[in-house]
Amino acid sequence: MTDAESGAGGDAEPRGDARGVRVPDARVTLSTASVYPEPTATAFETAARLGYDGVEVMVWTDPVSQDIEALRRLSDHHGVPVLAIHAPCLLITQRVWSRDPWEKLRRARSAAERLGAETVVVHPPFRWQRNYARDFVRGIWRMADETAVQFAVENMYPWRYREKEMLAYAPDWDVTNEDYRHHTLDLSHTATARNDALEMADRMGDRLCHVHLADGSGSGKDEHLVPGRGNQPCAGMLERLAARGFGGQVVVEINTRRAMSAAERESDLAESLAFTRLNLAAPVPRGAS
Hints:
The protein is 34% helix and 18% strand. The chain has ten helices and 13 strands. A hairpin with a 2-residue loop joins β8 and β9 (164-166). The longest helix is centred in the last third of the chain and has 18 residues, at 262-279. It is globular, with a radius of gyration of 18 Å.
């Protein structure tokens, strides 16, 4: 781990222990996207078995991910809370819940409120969603003013083909260039964008409330590798969060589609959880109680 001094936001008081280490109250959460192509139900079962603190539900084409009562039953059955809802912002989810992007966000907010989740993760609009993009920043503020749920806008990346870039998101893939109340920081996306994750976290400051933990190599693909298998400062980021007493969520969002078996997928998810818990700690400064 790096000897980081300051970093991303959060407002919970960290806990010190006898070994001179502080661990924040951040919840380590499993994204249901991490078990794809297995269904949403598998994520709840896996999170319970491995000891994750909760799940982030990626709303996509799986009908269970769209069904609030089904999600509630899974949460109750496995004893795993739904801590975040990822709104259906992907190309493959353009018809999920509605074709109207604002209706998608209203339904995501309603799902979060009904399930007790504190965060809705949302991507910036695609550039061709012109009307949505034109009012996006103001609209997110309006929606945030109507609820206790946090709308955490996620950093994205330019699309690349043979080193040519296409700016696919508006107002900007770099969400720190706009005035949002809350942010999600995704370390696979920082790898794809080829920007500095720690600097981006610094720019987000106290607006950073949600982290998607994954790794990347800096290729043109959004890789979502197991933390520690790429070139992103995953360990250093976690230690910075710990040093600041981060009270949000650290969400393991990795790609396990190439796993050859359920056992291999579960091994990757267990490794990611162990990596996160090990590195989500910081030395107690000298003189601190």
